[in-house]
Amino acid sequence: MSSTYSLCVLSAEDIVWKPGPLRSKTPNLYVAVHQDGHVQRTVTIKHELAPKWDHLLKISYMLPSSSKSETSIRLFHDSSLPGRDLWLGVVDINGVAWAKLCGSEQNTILLDFKGVDGDSKGKPIGKLSLRLLRETDTAATALEMAQRDVAKVAPGATSSTLIKAPGLVAKSASVAKDFDPALWTTIIAKLEPIVELGDKIAAIHPYANMAWKILTSVYQAAKKQQATDAKLGKLVQTMVDIPIFWRRKSKSLEDKVLAIVTQTVECSLFIQDYTANGFRSRTVRNTWANADNKIDELCDVLLKLQDSFDSSLSVQGLFLSTKVLQKLDGLVESEILKKLNPVDMNATSRTSCLLGTCQKILDEINEWILVPCDPGNVLWLSGVAGSGKSTISTTISESARELHRLGGFVFFDRNDRARSHPDGVIRTIAYSLAQCHPDIASAIAVAIQSDPSITNAPIHAQFKTLLQDPLTSVENSNSIQGPIVLVIDALDECGDPGSRGLLLSTLAAELPKLPHFLRVLITSRRDADITKHFHSRFTAKVLDVGTQSITDVGLFIRDKLEKIRLDEEDLGSSWPGEENINRLVDLSGGLFIWASTAVKFIAVYKPQEKLELLVTHHSTTEDFSLNKLYSVALQNSGPWEDGGFVQDARAVLACVVLGRTPMTDVTMDALLDFRSPTSAKVLRNLGCVVQWGPGAQARTLHASFSDYLTDPTRSAGNPWAIDTATGHHRLALGCLKILDTELKFNICALEDSHLLNTDVHDMSDRVATHHSLAG
Ligand SMILES: Nc1ncnc2c1ncn2[C@@H]1O[C@H](COP(=O)(O)OP(=O)(O)OP(=O)(O)O)[C@@H](O)[C@H]1O
């Protein structure tokens, strides 16, 4: 049977360190713990041969039920150069060492780091001090560490201030009544050490970090205004009493932590809104007549959440929103709202940022959303292809969803042009926003009822009637406390410059007029038409590919290669080797899509051979751009010296990148007049660039692959280059041929013309394909 533990990396001692030409006098040490494909690391302690980390790891440790589960704790020198850290030693914790650790539970044990390089290989190069903790002791230890951290930054702070950290003030309803104005000064004093905490809170939980950011801004505002308010006191005190310095360890504890920090963020937003209104004017404050009740409810939920820690109480569904004041008035509205005919946005297969990557930009965006000092309500994140914009937008929308603040996540996909047409954008946004708040739903429903033709009106009219007017009316009635987050991802994949002009000009001119509670994040490449419309209108951030992204891509490559090593029996424990990792990181140039394609290429078949192909067949000076990587990947995906294969593969690739809707291999065979399973045979070898499985629709894994195949300046001269005009022509001919031979009674290439449409499982796919292939 397995149990859950946490691992506390305490310190190291007696580290053997030889200064040299490339090595500083003393090392900057950190430890990375690899387990089952996950990597966690401590901070770097500079210039110490006996560093103390006191680092409680965030990942869960299951006692291995099979001997396959291995943990490896690696000691690194932090060189400060991206991807150039020096791997010094390792402690491998296998079954025996786990047993030893568990036997000494709660006690500190010492293990030897073994050297990994040169003369020291396999020899002891220092000692690592560890402690294994049961889940129940984890929180106490985390708390103790947080207290110590705070004590460092705020020597006079008492432990109760620290334990009750991210919150602020007063004790209960009775305290609220007797609130002493002087208490506000006490609140400010209590907040000071918390405000100093910064990074420490970020390390505990990303949402704790958000709560901290919001409270810091409230604190600064409060300090400036010296405002006093009894109402606030009670909520703040309750928040103070809830310890959120609990680590995520087991699934159930994780749920509880998430519930508490989520509710804490919600309370912080309430306080932010409340104080902002309070500071603004007394008249506005009168509209806060229900605030007392809301504060009581918020306190109640927080206390219930706290109780759940000490009991087996489930916290599922225990969340009190400060914005939802009434239940959605059911069917009537939703029937009306269906007239918006929104495009289906299915984010199931989208990936979020690997933990620890893109932290700075994620923090900046979250802060922009949650602590709005920027008068603008639109943030445009741009960057080159494959720099990670879509992954960031998915991460932001996911955290907004978890915080019950997601107003909509709208994204476009060049693979699916029919679903990425500019015409559906405003209707889809309106529908998403209506789903998130009943008052918005009501306001939009009223707009549709009073003008049913609006859903087919020109874009600027749709914007005004379906978004601007309803959102403004909701803002005026004060029923929403912001922020509500709307994410629009990959706008460059929405239509083309010819078809999206009106949408861009409408968004540029009208989005800033929407109420401030709506925070809009737009991501796109820097296409000329988008840049022209957005660059001076919105707050802009450019996702750089440079030093920081090289470090992030390094984490990503390590993580993925470790997963490959665990999946492949014959790769030794030292695979892929530090040098190879560094080489891949160098070659990637900090571009995520390069790294992601490379690791897929390595994973598909014979990883060691593929790795060698990438790292040794190209000199360090040679440019190894994304184009080159795609060409190496394709070169290895089939017998390109065979003319027959070239013809088949080109035709299949044309179907993948030029078809208006994604097609299955069966559809491709029918369209191209191939004997089955020709298309499947070609697709089977394209796993690192095309997402496909037998009978499933094939899509490029990334838009940059379509660009590469169809851009003559990038792939010309290669047998797989696609001439767009010829490709469309071929698809059109395929369509015509099918129509010619089968149209009489069977437009969709059905095997049996007596079948009912409902009996054909892929009918919509066939119809879409046969109608729109040549578009
Ligand atoms: N922080 C990250 N963690 C893990 N994987 C990432 C991260 N960022 C990007 N990736 C991976 O890198 C690839 C490219 O990223 P993404 O699609 O987000 O780039 P993009 O900037 O949106 O590109 P484009 O402009 O071409 O759409 C994806 O396969 C994604 O899974």
TrEMBL record:
Residues 377-528 form the NACHT domain. Pfam families: C2, NPHP3_N. The keyword Flavoprotein does not apply. Keywords: Repeat. The keyword ATP-binding does not apply. Residues 1-111 form the C2 domain. InterPro entries: C2_dom (IPR000008), C2_domain_sf (IPR035892), NACHT_NTPase (IPR007111), NPHP3-like_N (IPR056884), P-loop_NTPase (IPR027417). This is C2 domain-containing protein.
